[in-house]
Amino acid sequence: MCVYLKQMNKKVFESFYEESIVDYANEHVKSGDWEAEGSTERARSEFENLLPEGLDTSNQYLLSAIYNNVEIGYVWLHIYDGKDQKKCFIYDINIKDAYRGQGLGTKTMRSIEEYCKDTDVETIGLHVFGHNKRAVALYNKMGFETTNYRMEKKLK
């Protein structure tokens, strides 16, 4: 059985939006990029810039991941015309905790690939925090290649 992607409805979007802001802020704090104080407000500001029209923002695809008629997570794609080709950037893929470790992340990534192929996307990109080893392993398994590194060394 496959995971399929469908447009979020307004209620799902509102839940996704608030959860994702908190998750995004927490990931930045965990990575050492941001201080905890003010991180949620900073994340909210970034989301407001990226999704000024919310669910109706052009070129942003806010999707529910459905498996066996159950919503198992969310996907946020930005599909756009790059320099020489149509591209997709995965802003967010989140499988709910209860559904992790069951191969559904892999199935969701395959569904994203099919969704992108159906819209003539030639390249998919994404960002992953270095501490998210599970996601890094998934993306490597799916054939993603590292295109650059940002490295840091703590001295104190």
UniProtKB/TrEMBL annotation:
Domain N-acetyltransferase: 11-156
Keywords, comma-separated and alphabetical: Acyltransferase, Transferase
Enzyme Commission number(s): 2.3.1.-
GO MF annotation list: acyltransferase activity, transferring groups other than amino-acyl groups
Keyword Transferase in annotation: yes
Entry keyword annotation includes Transferase: yes
PANTHER family, alphabetized: N-ALPHA-ACETYLTRANSFERASE, N-ALPHA-ACETYLTRANSFERASE 50
Record protein name field: N-acetyltransferase
Source organism of this protein record: Staphylococcus arlettae
Gene this chain is encoded by: yycN_2
